[in-house]
Amino acid sequence: QPPRRLTTTTVVQQKPTNAIHDLLAGGIAGSAGIFVGHPLDSLKVRMQMSSGGGGSSIRTILAQSSTLGSVWNGLPAPLAGAAALNACIFLTYGSTTRLWDKYDTTNGNKNDESKSLAKEAICGGITGFVSSFIMCPTEHIKTKQQLNATMYRNSFHATQQIFTTHGFVGLNRAFVATAIRQSPGFCVYFGTYERLKDSLQTHNNIKCSQLIASILAGGFAGSFSWAIVYPIDLIKSRIQALPMDCSKNDRSIVHIGKSILKESGW
């Protein structure tokens, strides 16, 4: 989910008291976003698992609910990690942008657009990588439940079983693919979001309110970043959907990527 489910509070440096308020609001908003978007995410994952280039229609996927389970399967895992994820994003992005400003060589010239874009992109990329440590295990558990309705009773049972049999490494399967998705995804998201939001608020022919500008910029930035990283998300989902006892080669990014190209092309 944008890189999945960001809020405007993660991109603003504020006073400590306001930061706490924004962190709480971000956690609530993130949880609400996950709750609303989870059924669509389940459909996405199930279509990614289908052969023939994801040719299965939504109607076909829904008709398989009797065997695959409800589209709400796997919700507790990402929902439980929503607060931690938002805290991770808020703290990492805030810390890296403060460090950037501390060592900024432009002497505080905030009108330097190239510097500002570089800061948002690089700090966003670092934030994306760090967020992978939370995204990977929660999405692994979510994917397992979305595709194996009868194998695990709930998210806790899935986590316990995978950790007991395959340890921490098994729980974090497809971490590299997740990091490859998250880092450039956040890089694109933050850079696009800030530029577009500022344009919507300052352009003479538009001048949207801050709320409308944030909604429009966030929606476009999220869609744009997903369009760029979607191929690696497909590979990540395929890796996490494989049986836990599959060989290391069978779950490699290169092997899965070649299999998809051979099976469905670009």
How many beta-strand elements? 0
Strand-and-helix sequence, N→C?
HHHHHHHHHHH
Low-confidence segments: 1-14
Give me the Rg, rounded. Answer: 20 Å
Largest sheet: number of strands, sense, barrel closure: none
N-C termini distance: 23 Å
Q: Which class of secondary structure composition applies to the elements?
A: mainly alpha
Report the sheet-strand fraction.
under 5%
Q: Label the overall shape.
A: globular
Q: Provide mean pLDDT, rounded.
A: 81
Tally of DSSP helical segments: 11
Instruction: Tell me the helix content.
Output: over 70%
Would you give an account of this structure?
Helix 7 (113-147) crosses helix 9. Helix content is 74%, strand content 0%. It starts with 15 loop residues before the first helix and ends with a helix. The chain has eleven helices and no strands. The longest helix has 35 residues, at 113-147. It is mainly alpha-helical and 266 residues long.
